[in-house]
Amino acid sequence: MEPFAYRTAASESERRAPGLLNMAPWSRFEGLTAGFSTRLGGGSLPPRDGLNTALHVGDDEKAVIANRRAIAEALGWPFEAWTCAEQVHGSRVVRVTDEERGMGGLSRESAIQDADALITDEPDILLAMYFADCVPLYFYDPEHGALGLAHAGWKGTAADVAKETIRAMRDAFGTAPSDLYASIGPAIGVCCFEVDDIVKNRVLVDVPEDARFHVPSSEGKYRLNLKEINKHLMIKAGILPSRIEMSGWCTSCSTDLFFSHRKERGQTGRMMSWLGKKK
Ligand SMILES: [Zn+2]
């Protein structure tokens, strides 16, 4: 069953109410919230209509902040808890403490710089990251109440940001990989993610030749399954396969619901992944 389940808008009349996908299987963990936003609702104008959550895509700043505030409100979280990074398609992991709480909510300048994974063991921090085709990775360690959220495009996948996040959680909180739950969110699917052999060879360094991970398409081209590759990297790093959830949504196939960088040729907005735990 699709783990990212749609939370409908409060009412038909609230057409701007944010359309959010809740990571349903984790609602069994008390105080935990995890999910992914869609493009539905919100006040951004085309081509970033409507619920764009990112400030770096040329959208009206006021509209983006209003969209973010609406999402926080829909989740029942104070906007002051919203904490995010300037993502750079790398693999640097930053630990978020009470000192970093709220960074990046209102501006790019105030965001945690140069990071593609955020981890924390402090409650009441809402980790946020932004996506349009790249793969959102979620980690939860119930033993230490610790969270991790990562951004894995093909570069982040090649840099194994999943492994780096797991390693950072182990170093910071004593997280055992076998205690972790993980989830892989909506992202571009193997149906749509065609690359050349240069990209394929960079991504598949530590990944076996297997039809699960890539399939040949046209001459010299391949279609990569970034979600399956990240699942493989998570398992390799010690997470139990039975504890990994994976979304079936392809962002590029469903531009009615999602922004897609590839399908919309770069002229689009960003969804957000969120992960937080209340005290
Ligand atoms: Zn697709």
Provide the fold topology.
Layout (H helix, E strand, L loop, with lengths): L3 E4 L12 E4 L8 E6 L23 H15 L6 E3 L8 E3 L21 E4 L5 E6 L3 E7 L4 E7 L1 H5 L2 H13 L7 E4 L9 E3 H7 L10 E3 L4 E4 L1 H11 L7 E3 L24 E7 L2
Parallel strand pairs: 4-7, 5-6, 10-14
Antiparallel strand pairs: 1-2, 2-3, 3-15, 6-9, 7-15, 8-9, 8-10, 11-13, 12-13
The structure holds zinc ion (ZN).
The site of zinc ion has 6 residues, from loops.
Report on the structure:
With 279 residues, the protein is of the alpha+beta class. It has a single domain (4-188, 243-277), classed as CNF1/YfiH-like putative cysteine hydrolases, CATH 3.60.140. It is built from 5 helices and 15 strands. The strands form 3 sheets. The chain has a 6-stranded mixed β-sheet. A 6-stranded mixed β-sheet has the order 5-6-9-8-10-14. A 3-stranded antiparallel β-sheet has the order 11-13-12. The radius of gyration is 17 Å and the shape is globular. It starts with a strand and ends with a strand. The mean pLDDT is 95. Zinc ion is lined by residues 189, 191-192, 250, 252-253.
Low-confidence stretches: none
Largest sheet: 6 strands, mixed
Rg, Å, rounded: 17 Å
Helix content: 10-25%
CATH topology-level fold name: CNF1/YfiH-like putative cysteine hydrolases
N-to-C series of helices and strands: EEEHEEEEEEHHEEHEEHEE
